[in-house]
């Protein structure tokens, strides 16, 4: 069983937000909402400043609190460890939104909770998620973390990297190369 | 220095800049749930102990309000749902990992029980009460023969209801200020105390009022202890918990929490009740009203603070 994750090269990312727009278009994300977003994180003291530009989204956590707290089972982990919301089962109680340390979820105007699906519909067909496919700097990589020969596994072995808020214990599956 | 700026794609309704997914509806529900838990717990307890005649308000009168208040609470919970048509989905699944799931099943049990309980007592409170249909009479007569087992299950379910309203929030590790095991017992104690306060509002019997005052003094003392313990726990914990506690210790919720919840909702009524019990001042309904208001502010402020409290990126 695959365990899908993403590896994003912050050294290459220029923060153009093409991934944000690609996602909104591919997934018909309603206006005013987004499933991925760009962050500029600044660290250090002047003149020793370090900036990391990151494309962020749902981390498809292995220990997903959003799935655990969902009272109906609408939030679920599907094939490849992709965390999805089944619209038909969602009550819009928003427990999952409260449970996500990354604030990756939002209420779709139709009432159900929405978020990044890793473009499950594309992944099923063997394609990359829209954000990965469209990135002009090719800084995003999608693949099977379980497979030692996959590009993502190789990158994680060869370059220093970090995940976001690992201390929260959710076991996020998006990694940032530094 | 650390700075975190979202440059594209966010600024979503109710998510940014801080979460605001739960407005007044959820705190009102948590409050009414706790209050009803308190009312039903003491009613069932004193019924089982055979005190129905000595403590008529506790055993028989306020339980008549329980299904109404709980119904209101359920209604506000329903108002909060974004996908109201799918409300039935709570009952197509049992998910033991989800506090909200066992909460909804607890409600499915305690709401009908509270109706039955009220039906058993309404005839004793209003002697002229007549059920419109014969089958209702028969049903209530049957319920009466099972009054003790119903009372026992009310005790169990009311404790679950009272404690779960806190556990619901404490299970969210993503919101550090909620993520403390104290919240369950604290909300339970607060629910019991507001239940007692509602009884104090209605009771006219001196002995009953005296006993209610005594128990309330103890529950308030427990609440104060739990609050102190909660902050000691936060301050002795990891950085994010220290930061979370800061919301109440100098941060934006400091004044509202310490004034409305701790001072006016706990310490002042505690003092007044103690003085009343010793006969130093005349008994009034003021402590009960303060406790009832303080219980609401506790839920409201905690629900708000949790949404501001994050791991910070
Ligand atoms: S990032 Fe948030 S929404 Fe995504 S799996 Fe983790 S907890 Fe759930
Ligand atoms: S809002 Fe929907 S997906 Fe989220 S916890 Fe509630 S029912 Fe589950």
Describe the structure.
The complex is a heterodimer of chains A (178) and B (313). Chain A has six helices and ten strands. Chain A has 178 residues and is an alpha+beta fold. Chain A has a single domain (4-177), classed as Alpha-Beta Plaits, CATH 3.30.70. Helices cover 68% and strands 2% of the residues of chain B. Chain B has eleven helices and one strand; from the N terminus they run E-H-H-H-H-H-H-H-H-H-H-H. Classes of the chains: A alpha+beta (178), B mainly alpha (313). Chains A and B meet through strand 2, helix 2, helix 3 and strand 6 of A and strand 1 and helix 4 of B. The structure holds iron/sulfur cluster (SF4) (2 copies).
CATH class of chain B, anyone?
A: Mainly Alpha
- Kindly report the CATH topology of chain B: Formate dehydrogenase/DMSO reductase fold
Overall geometry of chain A comes to globular
For the termini of chain A, the CA-CA separation is 29 Å
Query: How many structural domains in the coordinates of chain A?
Result: 1
Secondary-structure class of chain B: mainly alpha
**Which strands sit side by side, in order, in the main sheet of chain A?**
8-1-10-9
- Low-confidence segments of chain A: none
Question: Can you tell me the CATH topology of chain A?
Answer: Alpha-Beta Plaits
Q: Give start-end ranges of low-pLDDT stretches of chain B.
A: none
The fraction of residues assigned to DSSP E strands of chain A is 25-35%
Radius of gyration of chain B: 21 Å
Count of strand segments of chain B: 1
The number of helical segments of chain B is 11
Measured as a percent range, the helix fraction of chain A is: 10-25%
Most extensive interface? A-B, 53 and 51 residues
Mean pLDDT of chain B: 95
Second-tier CATH architecture of chain B: Up-down Bundle
Based on CA atoms alone, the radius of gyration of chain A comes out at: 16 Å
């Amino acid at each position: 069983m695959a365990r899908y994750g993403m590896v994003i090269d912050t050294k290459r990312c220029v923060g153009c937000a093409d991934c944000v727009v690609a996602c909104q278009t591919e997934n018909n994300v309603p206006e005013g909402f987004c499933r991925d977003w760009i962050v500029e994180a600044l660290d250090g003291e002047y003149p020793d400043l370090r900036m990391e530009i990151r494309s962020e989204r749902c981390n498809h956590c292995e220990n997903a609190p959003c799935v655990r707290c969902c009272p109906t089972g609408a939030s679920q982990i599907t094939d490849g460890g992709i965390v999805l919301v089944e619209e038909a089962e969602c009550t819009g109680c928003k427990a999952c939104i409260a449970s996500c340390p990354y604030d990756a979820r939002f209420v779709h105007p139709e009432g159900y909770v929405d978020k990044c699906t890793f473009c499950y519909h594309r992944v099923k067909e063997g394609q990359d998620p829209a954000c990965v496919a469209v990135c002009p700097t090719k800084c995003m990589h999608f693949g099977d973390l379980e497979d030692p020969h996959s590009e993502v596994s190789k990158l994680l072995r060869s370059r220093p990297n970090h995940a976001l808020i690992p201390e929260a214990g959710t076991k996020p599956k998006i990694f940032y190369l530094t | 220095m650390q700075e975190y700026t979202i440059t594209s794609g966010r600024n979503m309704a109710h998510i940014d800049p801080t979460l605001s997914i739960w407005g007044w509806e959820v705190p009102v529900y948590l409050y009414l749930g706790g209050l009803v838990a308190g009312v039903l717990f003491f009613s069932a307890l004193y019924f089982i102990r055979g005190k129905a005649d000595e403590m008529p308000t506790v055993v028989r009168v306020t339980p008549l309000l329980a299904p109404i208040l709980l119904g209101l609470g359920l209604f506000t919970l329903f108002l909060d749902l974004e996908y109201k048509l799918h409300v039935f989905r709570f009952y197509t699944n049992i998910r033991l990992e989800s506090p909200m799931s066992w909460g909804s099943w607890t409600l499915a049990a305690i709401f009908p029980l509270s109706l039955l309980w009220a039906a058993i007592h309404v005839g004793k409170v209003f002697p002229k009460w007549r059920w419109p249909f014969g089958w209702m009479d028969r049903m209530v007569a049957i319920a009466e023969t099972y009054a003790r087992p119903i009372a026992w299950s009310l005790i169990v379910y009311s404790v679950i209801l009272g404690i779960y309203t806190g556990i619901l929030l404490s299970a969210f590790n993503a919101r550090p200020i909620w993520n403390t095991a104290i919240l369950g017992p604290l909300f339970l104690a607060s629910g019991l105390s507001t239940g007692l306060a509602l009884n104090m509002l209605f009771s006219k019997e001196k002995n009953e009022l005296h006993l209610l005052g005594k128990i309330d003094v103890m529950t308030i003392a427990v609440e104060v202890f739990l609050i102190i313990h909660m902050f000691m726990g936060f301050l002795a914990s990891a950085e994010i918990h220290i930061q979370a506690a800061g919301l109440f210790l100098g941060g934006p919720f400091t004044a509202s929490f310490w004034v409305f919840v701790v001072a006016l909702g706990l310490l002042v009524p505690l003092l007044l009740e103690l003085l009343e019990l010793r006969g130093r001042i005349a008994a009034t309904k003021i402590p009960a009203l303060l406790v009832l208001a303080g219980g609401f502010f506790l839920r409201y402020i905690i629900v708000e603070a949790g949404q501001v409290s994050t791991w910070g990126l």
